[in-house]
Specification:
By secondary structure, the chain is an alpha+beta fold. Helices cover 59% and strands 12% of the residues.
């Protein structure tokens, strides 16, 4: 049997993980593919870097990847692929950056920022509030809440970009470790750039992020403000 390509092995992993009811993300890298599987709670249960050299199991609870490949006789990809290439490091740093971006969105600080802005908006006169962003509108209209979420996420991105140098290794290191990288890898300019590009991807481009902020933060907080207004 001829050796399968990295693309064929990646497809097997993707189909197998989807069959196990995981949410699967596949990203092309210069050398092959990065694959991540999450459960319904958004927890990463498996992630892999796969290239011509083989499969590198970065995180794999229960050896899911190896078992899936062995069942389909793709044993060439069931062994460790060796050292991670520069291109793979950049792809992995991008994923770590995305995790960092999400951690900032889910932080208490961002929740406080959203709450403060909504409370300040409630204190404004109707003429001062931009049409479509009134408390009652964002509380009841999901599209309006997502538009407001986009603005809040833009502000968060600007704050992160401005304070990038102040984020400690202690904050970033665990996220790098999740993808088998270390703080030392961030000394490589390309790896560092890939990490922050991943963070921007979540904050700028992710529809899921806007939806999460709208549904988890903006609308519940706005509804609470309206309740207090009714009681007053």
């Amino acid at each position: 049997m001829s050796r399968p390509s990295a693309q064929e092995a990646a497809a097997v992993l993707e189909d197998g993980l989807l069959g196990l009811s995981y949410n699967v993300t596949v990203r092309a890298t210069r050398d092959g593919f990065f694959i991540r599987a999450e459960n319904s709670h958004g927890t990463i249960v498996a992630s892999y870097s796969i290239s011509k050299a083989g499969l590198i199991s970065i995180r794999d609870e229960g050896d899911l990847g190896e078992e899936l490949l062995k069942k389909l006789h793709l044993t060439e990809f069931s062994e460790e692929g060796g050292a991670i290439s520069a291109a793979e490091k950049e792809a992995l740093a991008f994923e770590a950056g995305r995790a960092f971006g999400m951690s900032q969105i889910e932080s208490d600080e961002f929740s406080t920022f959203v709450t403060g802005n909504l409370i300040e908006g409630e204190k404004m006169s109707p003429s001062e509030i931009e049409k479509g962003f009134e408390t009652q509108t964002v509380a009841r209209n999901k599209a309006a809440a997502e538009r407001l979420a986009r603005r809040y996420l833009e502000q968060l991105r600007w704050d992160i970009e401005r304070n990038r140098a102040y984020f400690s290794r202690a904050e970033v290191a665990p996220l790098l470790a999740e993808v088998n990288l270390s703080s030392d890898d961030m000394r490589d300019r390309n790896v560092d750039l890939a990490f922050w590009k991943g963070a921007r991807d979540v904050l700028d481009s992710s529809t899921d992020s806007r939806k999460w902020v709208a549904e988890t933060l903006i609308q519940p907080i706005a509804k609470q403000i309206l309740k207090k207004r009714t009681r007053a």
